[in-house]
Design goal:
This protein is an alpha/beta fold. 27% of the residues lie in helices and 14% in strands. The chain is built from 55 helices and 54 strands. The strands form 12 sheets. Strands 34, 35, 38, 39, 40, 41, 42, 43, 44, 45, 46 and 47 form a 12-stranded mixed beta sheet that branches. Strands 32-50-49-51-52-54-53-48 form an 8-stranded mixed beta sheet. Strands 14-13-15-16-30-17 form a 6-stranded parallel beta sheet, with helices on both faces.
Length: 2012
């Protein structure tokens, strides 16, 4: 019978599907809410409930329940008491379902989904932050509404009506309140569901809709919690809906499992503490309907006949649901297996060994034996084991095998006697135990209907599994485990669903509830178990059911059951039968002991020769296996085998034949041997290999001569390992972004800003070739030059080797010195790159020093490395699984997966290569179009297995290697043509080997430069590899082929050794001049014809050249079936295929999830494309690659390549014949391969003739072909081909397939080149062919149910174990990230794994913060990617150490220079008297002010005015330079080095600094009211303030005395006004101050207080009053200055009270911009002009504060930095008088009467300096210091957006709209009036002052204030104050007058001093219209100025925003 796979589940079509809730509970809601919550009533209720549900079992008395309460599951009814909900299935009647009619809602009420009928919102998303009133005794519950699947509805439910966490004790009925409208007291869930508008189509039930508990999280938000545990609900009996009653069981309608539980007497909680609380079960809807049970005809349900197994249990009748189903009777219920677990197509069964590592050993678990019950007999020993069993003598000699005894259930009797020849394994027992250890999630709710498989069922399933195994197959524990899981899931499908919501996830990311396979390898198609029913399988039924199953396979499985009474008796019988030869054809003996009243016992004895050998070898560790091989070779045990293989039967002895060849080879080679047949001659057009070789040997020179011959060059040759590919750049950038993410996180584990360079060390496995290969990549990458680690270009090899270290004993010293270096160079970031990171993961404590293992753990996991803040570890591996366990050190967020290069066949990275990895190899086995690239060799296998039987004591690796080398030797003899006579060697070797050797010998002869290809021979044992090398070398020498190809022994411990001849060839090709040069890596063997024998237990990361053509893995071990082991062997064949060879429209590669193969498993970056690649691709990539150069497949001649693609296409069409397309051939071959057990048997010799049509098709027959004779490459024996028309095609395709070199690249641009005869050039466009052992081939090519290769479900590595058998399978659609999370959830490291010690209670600290994992498939280019990453990381660090500094020349300097020098150039401080003699420079030189009005200064000559620019544009175009930060830089919040932690108040180990808020009040006349400011003062800064004794009120800020001085102290408080720059402002002055103590106060607006406090918790904040929220920089400076003066007065009075002098208090403060990043001092000694060097802010301030006459100055400042130094008319003048900006030292005492203008937004500093100077105060600029200002594009006081009142969206409002006529209807703006006025005057002054435009000699007179009138207008500032210093205005004609808030000092007489041009403009500005008129009247302006009514304006503000008014007039 053929099972029907992939049929959809029958649920949808079943009329009973959704009627399962149409009935009410017997008790229903009748007494809802009446019971009280007393214990007695609960128990009484439970008892009644149980009796109603049961028909035979007497309920426990109520009082015994009350007083004898136990936690154990009661012995009766497997459903726990108090299952109070309805069963969801329909009754068994066939009546049609009655649809549920909802009560119509009342008129006018709300019916919107998510709202109650009162119209109030109930959705969780809306109520999450609301405070809800929950009455006592009620709890908040989330209701699932069918119409709103994405959200929950919130309601309050009485706890009594909900189950507890174990699913028990819920009262029937309902009591709930509506959380929307607050209505209380709903007594019926039906009524409540109507009220909340659930709109159900079925009867409302609380079990169905009350889904989740709700709780408040840390943020106080209401969130979804654990699901409510309605026991057995949500599908427990749902499957019944599809059961057909009576006998209506058809093949399409499969009765699913009826059992709701397996009622065994299983007690206690047999928990698996290491299992994660996530179950693996079947989702209710599976993607492809895969959980539809494959159907077969079965006996009807009510037929009680033989053949129905049942599961063990203490009661025959477990009880039906509450309502009987028709046809149900206590006898008719049987608990059978789901037949989907019992049938499987043969293709999915696997042949391989039981892997040691795949056994779930219980080292990581605690298995409490006392809790195990009858289902776990092995842990509760019966009577002491019976008599011991004697193993007979001579067992091995007699039977030629060592039987393997698998422990099963029950204690195994003791073996005595010849015990050395019997192996005992506990693998099966471990599998049984783990399959019964239910994960914690199922026990979370106490006793449950979910029970593990019974002992009887496990035994029966085991028998079924063994029965279906093929004669050559070996049992595999993974398969059996999956069968158990499948069966268990099927039997508990409904219960499992209840647990689908993950409980308390223990891993980051999502959990996988992944579909289980619908068919599992392990159960035969022709057998199935009868349907499951409630009745368990009894011990008495087990033997005859097992016997029935075993009888189907003849003698293959023998069952000992009924006739034996004990295991000892069974074992004794087995040994007797073995000795008598009665088990010759038996592979397994199953012993079952069932006795009444005793537990069932079992064991399995393996008696098949092949199986015993495989199992025995798999029970040794790999190292033990290698030692055994070495022992057998060294003791000569293998010599007999070698001698046996040497004999060629009738053809003589191999050695003697070779000796004769040695004699012959001294003469000329003979002509074509007599072996040549007629068929060979017909192929003369393509010279047979022997022919071509003979010709070569006659004609060609020796390689030495060849290499030097200039004409023999090949234009195709190129070496590409030095190229960096686009995808490598992308991965390097991903690595960089992950490093930045670590630095940006709040954990402060990496402070990138503190590093100024990168250093690194690359750790590689102890393989000399891998070491040299990494050095080669490092050298060609140029990364060392980029990092500055190397100075000169030509560096010795040793220089590069310093940066790479082999992980052997020498590594210790290297890493120690690096750690030492890292601790001393804290500014260097060290990257430890751990390449091939899966190699050594042994724990240091478990490893011996001589093994070389455990070093990684000892060195990389040491505390010194972990705690060093400047060491970052990057693990790089192709197989990351072993680093992804529950205890991993690497955060899932720190994993970088190699991205997919192709998406839907679009080349995402524009590469000309396509990666061909393991998945593509697999795809080539499935394509069916041609011979696959991965295959096995049947004739080799049959010869090896024959010898294995002949030599039972020899290790299979010895036998297989000997046979293989023998095959190679004979193939060499056959292909060389050197051995005369009529020897037919072909029958002594295999077709595959002969083809490999022929191809190797002929390839180099086709190319003028003698390029050839590589054959990789993988022999893990070093001893065997050395023997093979010696043997092959000897044969090569005897055949005289030393010049034809090289044989290289690749031993990881030794350097590469290549013969001089071939070394010279390489040097010629690579154009290397160095005479000492030798190849050190396999990559440098590019195009050398060679056999590379690669030894070592596992490959250690060696890369192979592109000339690799054959990957011969026929002798690798089949014993160790872990994913990593298999994939790293297959990874040797991974290959980057040249993309030109692909035809134009090729579908993408297959999407198999094997290793981390990126073409399938795209990384997180391309998850959305996942899974689409494979679905639509009709051809696999391997097919495309095989069939791309169509004619090349038929004819490899270079001339053929010149034909156009159309011609080629036609050629293939002829081949296929019109009627037979390729698809037919595919189907034919696939059916053949199913029909033929060995599809690759050696074809008959007659098939030579089939190659005729191929040769006839060749267009130019005279060209040489390098193909071997075709007949040996046919995939099937063509004599069996049913349709002769298709015969030519298979041979052509096998021809094409079989030799990588045949892919002639006809699509490449150089396809017409005469040198395409170069085998190497054609070979680079096709991947190598791989030959595997048959056993591995079957495993790797088999798929599991998810479509993944079988090997993906294997244990990932020997060092880990599965956390639980109850895990899901990997899914085909998983991305790399999801796969990582899967392994993190389901694998646990063994005790010898280095991560096993990485356990902590909380998960947060488990991950090492500075550890990254880069994973990508083998040979894809990871080394190049991480080397490039090192380069760009270094560039980024340099970039991080740099900052954009404004670098602009000072503006407005006049050309001529006055020759006066006021101070000597090196004067340290200014002299006040000298300063007074210096003229004040009114001109503004700061380049940021190049768009403002010039200040008039007599004698100043302006430059020719350019076009005006808008101020908004200036910000964008200002010139900057990138400057490296000095060690004295100020930083923003992103900098957090170790030194800063305490300063910033950020330290994860300490609590955040506490701060207190203090109010400070003072009165100011100008403001006319009290001002209240707030200080936020951290506890650590309180010593800077004084507080009152009583109440602790803030009194003043402490100020030092003038006489105080300390080298580590700054006296002046620093005030930094800031807005919008809480992250980017440079407030971290720790480094700038060089550690000096200083008082730094941030002045912030009230609305920004919280965010500044968050980012700068350890800074003092001065919070401006609310009224200043919209104010500009003027207000901040005004308040700082006034507060400082008020504080100065307070401090003076405090000093006087303390008895000190009042005037001695320090009166200076610093006003600093928030973008001052660095400070410089001028070097005066420099001979070559002035140079500057970086100094600390502490140096600058202490120098200025130390100025002897500082008190004479009102304001001091420093120069703005420019890269051109300081320009101007006095280049060496150290001090000057003029405008100061950005960084000011202000004397608040002397400047007491000059205030900043609190209303100003722009140019406030220009205005203040002019008024300060006019008041007679000295202003001094220290030109010997400069400040660098960082460009910060965010925030600041200049970013004001002018927007309308109507909307918050900024609208473009022109300057003309900033003002309007008073009382007009105008669009009002939401911008301060002062800002509108300033902007209006700046942008429209040429209209306002037309005579002033570009008229420097006639400026606008501005009285008492400076306002910017735009760059085209000049302003002349005068002060009206008496005794003020003004410029002489005599004879000056003004073009305008500006009066802004004129005060009483401005009088009519003052104005009459000035003369105006006729038509000059007057502008008077006032706060309101009345004061405007008063000013005009008071100043008698109407006498000289003419006014019009239309000349009055106001700013465009609403009345409540207090607009400003101004009046304009013209001079008469």
């Amino acid at each position: 019978m053929i099972p029907l796979h992939g049929q959809p589940a029958p649920r949808a079509s079943n009329p009973r599907l959704h009627t399962d809730s149409n009935r009410r509970t017997p008790m229903g809601n009748s007494y809802a809410g009446q019971l009280r919550t007393t214990r007695f009533e609960e128990v009484l209720h439970n008892s009644i409930e149980a009796s109603l549900r049961s028909n035979t079992v007497i309920p426990r008395p109520v009082f015994s329940q009350l007083y004898l309460e136990t936690e154990q599951l009661s012995a009766h009814d497997g459903r726990a008491e108090n299952d109070d909900e309805d069963d969801e299935d329909g009754s068994a009647s066939n009546s049609p379902p009655i649809p549920y009619q909802m009560k119509l809602p009342p008129e006018g009420c709300c019916t919107t989904d998510g709202f109650c009928q009162a119209g109030r919102d109930l959705r969780l998303s809306s109520l999450a932050s609301e405070s809800l009133d929950v009455p006592p005794g009620f709890t908040l519950v989330g209701i699932k509404s069918p119409s709103l699947p994405e959200t929950l509805l919130v309601c309050a439910v009485d706890r009594r009506f909900l189950p507890d966490e174990r699913g028990r004790n819920a009262l029937l009925g309902f009591s709930g309140n509506c959380m929307g409208c607050g209505e209380k007291g709903f007594r019926y869930f039906t009524e409540f569901s109507n009220h909340i508008n659930l709109k159900l189509s079925t009867q409302p039930k609380k079990q169905k809709h009350l889904k989740y508990h709700l709780y408040r999280n840390n943020q106080g938000m209401l969130v979804k919690g654990a699901s409510i545990c309605w026991r057995g609900h949500d599908g427990r009996m749902r499957q019944m809906g599809s059961i057909l009653t009576e006998n209506h069981v058809t093949s399409d309608e499969q009765p699913p499992n009826l059992a709701s539980h397996t009622p065994s007497g299983y007690t206690g909680s047999h928990a698996d503490p290491s299992a994660l609380p996530q179950i693996a079960d079947l989702p209710q809807t599976l993607t492809n309907g895969n959980h539809a049970v494959p159907s077969v005809t079965q006996p009807p349900l009510n037929q009680s006949g033989p053949g129905r197994p049942s599961v063990t249990g203490t009661h025959a009748n477990a009880g039906p649901p509450k309502k009987r189903h028709k046809g149900w009777s206590p006898e008719s219920s049987a608990n059978s297996l789901p037949e989907s677990t019992l049938k499987t197509p043969p293709s999915s069964s696997v042949s391989s060994t039981l892997s040691v590592s795949s056994a779930v050993t219980h080292g990581a678990r605690s298995e409490p034996a006392a809790l195990l019950s009858s289902s776990q007999p092995s842990s509760t020993p019966l009577s002491p084991p019976e008599l011991s069993v004697t193993v007979p003598d001579q067992l091995l000699q007699t039977c030629r095998l060592e039987p393997v005894v698998f422990k099963g259930h029950g204690p195994l009797p003791q073996l005595t006697g010849n015990v050395g020849e019997v192996l005992v394994s506990s693998l099966l027992q471990s599998c049984y135990l783990s399959s019964q250890a239910l994960p914690r999630v199922y026990q979370h709710y106490g006793p449950s209907p979910i029970q593990p498989l019974s002992t009887e069922m496990q035994i029966l399933l085991t028998v079924y599994y063994l029965v279906q195994l093929g004669p050559d197959q070996v049992p595999l524990i993974e398969d059996l485990e999956q069968i158990f899981m499948r069966s268990w899931r099927e039997s508990h499908l409904s219960e499992i669903r209840q647990y689908q919501q993950p409980q308390t996830p223990a891993t980051h990311g999502r959990h996988y509830v992944v579909e289980t396979p619908s068919t599992l390898p392990g159960l035969p198609q022709h057998l199935c178990l009868p349907p499951q029913s409630q009745q368990p399988l009894t011990p008495s039924q087990l033997p005859w059911l097992a016997q029935l199953a075993a009888s189907s396979c003849g003698e293959g499985v023998v069952l000992l059951g009924d006739q034996i009474k004990s295991l000892a008796q069974g074992l004794q019988q087995t040994f007797s039968r073995l000795m008598e030869g009665r088990l010759e054809n038996t592979n397994y003996v199953v012993i079952i002991v069932t006795a009444p009243g005793q537990e069932t016992q079992s064991c399995v004895v393996v008696t098949g020769k092949h199986q015993c050998r495989a199992l025995a070898e798999s029970m040794c560790s790999p190292n033990e296996g290698l030692k055994e091989i070495d022992h057998q070779l060294s003791t000569g045990v293998a010599q007999e085998l070698i001698n046996f293989c040497n004999s060629l039967g009738q053809d003589g002895d191999m050695d003697s034949l070779l000796d004769s060849a040695t004699v012959d080879s001294n003469e000329l080679s003979p002509p074509l041997s007599s072996q040549e047949s007629a068929e060979d001659k017909s192929l003369k057009s393509t010279h047979s290999p022997k022919d071509s070789l003979t010709q070569c040997s006659k004609e060609s020179h020796s390689p030495k001569e060849r290499a030097s011959s200039p004409k023999d060059t090949c234009s195709e040759y190129s070496v590409e390992w030095r190229e960096v590919r686009p995808i490598q750049l992308a991965v390097a950038r991903k690595l960089l972004s992950h490093v930045c993410a670590i630095a940006d996180s709040s954990t402060q584990n990496l402070d990138l800003g503190s590093f100024d360079r990168v250093s690194f060390l690359i750790l590689v496995p102890p393989s000399e070739v891998t070491f040299q290969q990494t050095v080669l990549h490092l050298r060609s990458s140029g990364v060392l030059q980029e990092l500055g680690s190397l100075d000169q270009e030509c560096v010795s090899q040793g220089e590069f080797e310093r940066f790479v270290v082999k992980m052997d004993q020498s590594a210790q010293a290297r890493i120690d010195s690096l750690i030492q270096e890292a601790y001393s160079n804290t500014y260097t970031l060290y990257i430890l790159v751990h390449d091939h990171a899966h190699w050594d993961i042994s724990s240091a404590s478990y490893s011996t020093s001589d093994s070389g293992l455990g070093l990684v753990d000892q060195l990389l996991n040491s505390r010194r490395v972990r705690d060093a803040p400047n060491i970052l570890i990057l693990h790089v591996t192709s197989f990351p699984f072993t680093l992804q366990t529950q205890y991993t050190r690497i955060s899932p967020y720190n994993e970088i997966h190699w991205p997919s290069a192709f998406s839907n066949d679009v080349d995402l990275y524009h590469e000309r290569t396509r990666y061909f990895g393991v998945s593509e190899l697999l795809e080539s086995t499935r394509s069916g179009s041609s011979l696959p690239l991965m295959r096995h060799d049947s004739s080799f296998e049959s010869m090896a297995s024959t010898l294995e039987e002949r030599f039972p004591k020899l290790h299979s690796a010895v036998i297989r290697t000997t046979v293989l080398i023998q095959h190679y030797c004979i193939a060499l003899m056959a292909a060389s043509g050197r051995i005369g006579g009529s020897h037919n060697f072909h029958k002594h070797t295999s077709v595959e080997t002969l083809e490999i050797v022929q191809s190797l010998l002929t390839a180099a002869q086709q190319c003028p430069a003698h390029h050839g290809h590589m054959v990789l021979l993988r022999i893990p044992s070093s001893a065997l590899a050395a023997w093979a090398h010696r043997r092959l070398t000897r044969v090569r020498r005897q055949l005289g082929l030393e010049e034809s190809f090289e044989i290289i022994l690749g031993n990881p411990n030794q350097a590469l050794n290549v013969g001089q001849t071939f070394t010279d060839q390489i040097k010629t090709w690579l154009k290397i001049q160095d005479s000492e040069w030798v190849p050190r890596t396999y990559l440098e063997l590019e195009a050398i014809p060679c056999i590379l024998i690669l030894s070592g237990a596992e490959p250690l990361g060696e890369s192979l050249p592109r000339s690799l053509k054959y990957c011969d893995l026929r002798v690798i071990s089949c014993s160790y079936l872990q994913r990593t082991t298999l994939e790293q062997e297959l990874g040797l064949a991974a290959y980057l295929v040249k993309e030109e060879s692909r035809p134009p429209h090729n579908p993408g590669p297959g999407s198999d999830l094997l290793e981390s193969d990126a073409d399938k498993l795209s990384s997180t970056d391309n998850e959305e494309e996942e899974g689409q690649e494979n679905e639509d691709s009709p051809l696999s990539s391997s097919q495309q690659l095989q069939s791309c150069p169509d004619t090349g497949a038929l004819d490899t001649s270079s001339a053929q390549s010149t034909t156009s693609p159309n011609v080629q296409k036609g050629t293939v069409d002829i081949l296929q014949s019109p009627s037979q397309g390729q698809s037919q051939f595919q189907s034919q071959t696939s059916s053949q391969s199913q029909a033929t057990p060995h599809p690759q048997t050696q074809p008959p010799a007659q098939s030579y003739s089939q190659t005729q049509p191929v040769s006839q098709l060749q267009t130019q027959p005279q060209t040489q072909s390098l193909n071997p004779p075709l007949p040996q490459t046919n995939p099937q024996p063509l004599s069996q081909t049913p349709n002769p028309q298709t015969q030519p095609l298979p041979s052509a395709q096998s021809h094409r397939q079989h030799s990588k070199s045949t892919s002639s690249g006809s699509l490449s641009p150089r396809s017409s080149s005469p040198h395409l005869s170069c085998s190497w050039a054609r070979g680079v466009s096709r991947p190598p062919s791989v030959l595997l052992p048959r056993a591995l081939y079957d495993i790797i090519t088999a798929s599991d149910s998810s479509g993944l290769p079988r090997c993906t479900s294997f244990l990932p590595h020997m060092s880990v174990v599965w956390a639980s058998s109850f895990r899901p399978l990997l899914s085909k659609m998983m991305t790399c990230t999801e796969q990582s999370l899967y392994y993190r959830q389901w694998t646990v490291p063994r005790s010898h794994h280095m991560d096993s010690s990485n356990r902590t209670e909380g998960r947060s600290d488990n991950f090492h913060p500075r550890r990254l994992l880069l994973s990508g498939p083998p040979q894809v280019g990871k080394t190049g990617a991480y080397l490039h990453f090192l380069g760009i990381l270094s560039r980024m660090l340099i970039r991080l150490m740099e900052v954009d500094i404004y670098d602009e020349e000072d503006i407005n300097y006049t050309a001529q220079a006055e020759g006066v020098q006021y101070h000597p150039p090196n004067a340290p401080w200014p002299n006040p008297d000298t300063m007074r003699t210096m003229p004040f420079d009114y001109t503004i030189h700061d380049p940021k002010y190049d768009d403002i009005s010039a200040v008039y200064c007599p004698g100043h000559k302006t430059n020719a005015e350019g076009n005006p620019v808008r101020q908004e544009d200036v910000y964008l175009r200002r010139r900057t330079s990138r400057i490296k930060l000095s060690k004295y830089a100020a930083y923003n919040t992103y900098h957090h080095c170790e030194q800063c932690h305490q300063y910033l108040g950020f330290n994860p180990r300490y609590q955040m600094y506490e701060s207190t808020l203090h109010a400070f009040t003072f009165t100011h006349l100008l403001l006319g009211e009290e001002i209240q400011l707030f200080f936020i003062i951290p506890k650590s800064k309180e010593h800077y303030f004084s507080f009152s004794q009583t109440g602790g009120q803030l009194e003043s800020m402490r100020l030092p005395l003038t006489s105080d001085w300390s080298p580590d102290c700054i006296k002046s408080p620093i005030f930094t006004p800031t807005t919008g720059r809480h992250e980017h402002g440079l407030f971290n002055l720790y480094h700038a101050m060089d550690g000096a103590s200083h008082l730094h106060i941030l002045v912030v607006k009230e609305y920004e207080m919280a965010v500044y406090k968050k980012y700068w918790p350890n800074h003092i904040m001065l919070v401006l009053p609310t009224v200043f929220n919209g104010a500009g920089i003027g207000a901040a400076h005004f308040l700082i200055k006034e507060l400082s003066y008020h504080n100065l007065e307070l401090e003076r009075s405090r000093r006087v009270e303390g008895g000190g002098p009042a005037g001695d208090v320090w009166p200076f403060i610093i006003l600093a911009d928030d973008s001052c990043v660095m400070f410089n001092a001028v070097d005066l000694d420099a001979h070559n002009g002035t140079t500057e060097h970086a100094v600390s802010l502490k140096h600058v301030l202490q120098h200025m504060e130390a100025c002897p006459d500082l008190a004479h100055y009102g304001l001091c400042g420093i120069r703005k930095w420019s890269s051109r130094g300081f320009t101007g008319n006095r280049p060496r003048e150290p001090f000057s008088r003029g405008h100061l900006h950005d960084f000011l030292l202000l004397n608040v005492d002397r400047s007491q009467n000059i205030q900043y203008d609190q209303n100003r937004f722009t140019c406030h500093d220009v205005d203040f300096t002019l008024r300060l100077h006019s008041a007679g105060l000295l202003v001094c600029k220290f030109n010997s210091f400069s400040v660098m200002k960082k460009q910060i594009a965010i925030g600041g006081y200049r970013t004001f957006i002018i927007k309308t009142k109507m909307t918050d969206v900024p609208t473009s409002v022109g300057p003309s709209q900033y003002i309007c006529a008073p009382d007009s209807k105008h669009l009002f703006l939401a911008t301060p009036a002062q800002l509108l006025l300033e902007k209006y005057l700046q942008h429209t002054s040429q209209k306002l002052f037309p005579l002033s435009t570009r008229n420097y000699t006639h400026p606008v007179l501005s009285v008492d204030c400076y306002l910017n009138l735009g760059p085209e207008v000049t302003v002349c500032f005068v002060s009206s104050r008496p005794h003020s210093v003004n410029i002489s205005t005599t004879g000056l004609l003004f073009s305008g007058l500006l009066l802004c808030f004129a005060d009483s000092f401005v009088t009519p007489g003052f104005l009459k001093k000035f003369t105006f041009l006729k038509g000059a403009t007057l502008c008077v500005i006032s706060a309101d219209r009345s004061s405007l008129r008063q000013t005009v009247g008071r100043l008698e302006l109407e006498e000289e100025w003419r006014f019009r009514l239309s000349d009055e304006f106001q700013t465009a503000n609403a009345k409540e925003d207090r607009p400003l008014f101004f009046l304009t007039g013209k001079h008469i």
